[in-house]
Amino acid sequence: MRTRQAIAGSALFFIAAPGVVAGLLPWLLTDRYRLPWSTRPGLVPVGWVLIVVAAALLLHAFARFSLEGRGTPAPVAPTERLVVGGIYRHVRNPMYVAVLAIILGQALLFSSWALVAYAAIAAIAMVSFVKFYEEPTLARRYGADYEAYRRAVPGWLPRLTPWRG
Asked: Rounded CA gap, 133 and 124, in Å?
């Protein structure tokens, strides 16, 4: 896939997937962000830091798919190459981790238990999708390269030192 096509496809998928999961649905669950901000000390700044850092990591992960993998995160337009650079040297599923962090950051902003529950449901869905679809698909597509990567890099809790594969 050409780089421009990969970027365009990734941008569309960014809107369709994390845009809905971490943007539209939390927006609806917080009455269109009209809930009052948390009055508990420290929750609002911590929530904002979590959202901003996670959003930056999410954008970085999407860019890696387009530039390194020459494809998109969308299952219908996968990468030509296994993406293992950048943030992927620390955690195998940075997009999912970032989306969950954005949701939890919003939960902190609004002291919203509804968003905490939504994050838990989203986490179960993401872990199930990874286990039952993504990992078997990547193992078939990339074989031994993916298996070595899967064994070396944690799926959900980032490692501090980068994998040097």
From this structure: 14
**Distance between CA atoms of 165 and 162, rounded to whole angstroms?**
9
Domains of the chain: 1-152 (1.20.120.1630)
Q: Which of 68, 80, 58 is nearest to 13 (CA)?
A: 58
100, two tokens: 């969950």
pTM for the full predicted model:
0.96
Q: What is the CA radius of gyration of the chain?
A: 17
Q: Per residue in 45-84, pLDDT tens?
A: 999 999 999 999 999 999 999 999 999 999 999 999 999 9
Q: How far is CA 23 from CA 19, 20, 53, 104, 156, in A?
A: 5, 5, 15, 12, 21
